[in-house]
Amino acid sequence: MTGVLSKLGRANDAPFPPVNLLADFAGGSILCVMGILMALHSRGSSGEGQVVDAALSDGAAYASSFLFSSTNQIPMMWPGQRGCNLLDSGCPYYNTYGTKDGRYMAVGALEPQFYVALLKGLELENAELPHQMMLPKWGEIANAFKDKFASKTQSEWVDIFSKLDACVTPVLTFAEAAEHPHNKDRGMFLEVPGGIAEPHLLQNSVPTC
After folding, report:
1. Is residue 139's pLDDT more than 70?
2. Catalytically active residues, by annotation
3. How far apart are CA 73 and CA 49, in angstroms?
4. Residues 55-69, buried b or exposed e (16+ Cβ, 10 A)?
C-alpha cells in the first residue's frame, strides 16, 4: 500500500517482492527497535514513558524515503517506467550479468572512476561505447557488457576485478559468503551446528579512539 512495490522489478515484467526484508525487517523490526531506543533515551532525560507506534506499512514507506524524495528532487534518476532507471536494473553499469559458467557478477559502477575501471576490466574502450549517461543507448551498452561477462567464468572475473576498484563483485551463495576472505576477516558469520553460517553483528572489538 506504500507504492514502493511498484518500483521493484525489471522492465515489462511484474513487480517482485524483496523477500520479506522491506516491510518485516527494515520497515518493521529495525524501526521498532529504533523507536524503543528513542523512548528509553527520552525517559532517561524526561522521566516520562513513551508509546512506540510501529506499523509495517508506515515503516516500509519511511525506509524507502529516498525513492520518494529523489523522485521529487532528482527526477533524472527516475525518468522511465519500472526497470528503466538508474537504480532499478535499467542502467547497464548498475546490474547483474551472467558468466560463462552460469554464475553471476554484480556491477555497481555508478561513479565515473568506477565506470572507467569497469571498462578496463572488461577490456572495452570508452570510445567504442555511447556515453554512460546517454539513457537511450543504455541497451547498447548493456548488450556489450552482457557479451563480455558471458565470455569468462565467475572465478576469472573475480580474479580480474580483484585488482581493480570498479565496484564489481561475485554473486555468492550463503555458504560461499561465509567462506569469503573479506567476510571471514571481519568475523561476519558464525557457524551454526547442523546448518549454514549466519551473520554475526556484535563483535568483540575495542574502540581505538
Report:
1. yes
2. 24
3. 37
4. ebeebbbebbeebee
Strand ranges, E, within the chain: 94-98, 104-108, 168-170, 189-190, 198-199
Burial class (CB within 10 angstroms; exposed 0-12, middle 13-18, buried 19+) of 148: middle
β-bridge partners, 168: 107
Encoded amino acid at 50, one letter: Q
**Residue 128 reports pLDDT greater than 60:** yes
Cβ neighbours of residue 204 closer than 8 Å, sequence gap 6 or more: none
Label residue 201 by pLDDT band (50, 70, 90): confident
Cell of 188: 561476519
Q: Hey, what's the cell of 96? A: 547483474
- What's the mean per-residue pLDDT of the chain? 94
CA distance 21 to 30: 10
The predicted model gives 25-40 an average pLDDT of 95
* Contact of 34 with 58, CB cutoff 8 Å: no
Burial status of residue 143 (CB atoms within 10 A of its CB: 0-12, 13-18, 19 or more): exposed
Distance CA 13, CA 83 (A): 9
Span 117-125, average pLDDT: 98
pLDDT tens track for 16-25: 999 999 999 9
Secondary structure of residue 105 in the 3-state scheme: strand
* Beta carbons of 142 and 153 less than 8 angstroms apart: no
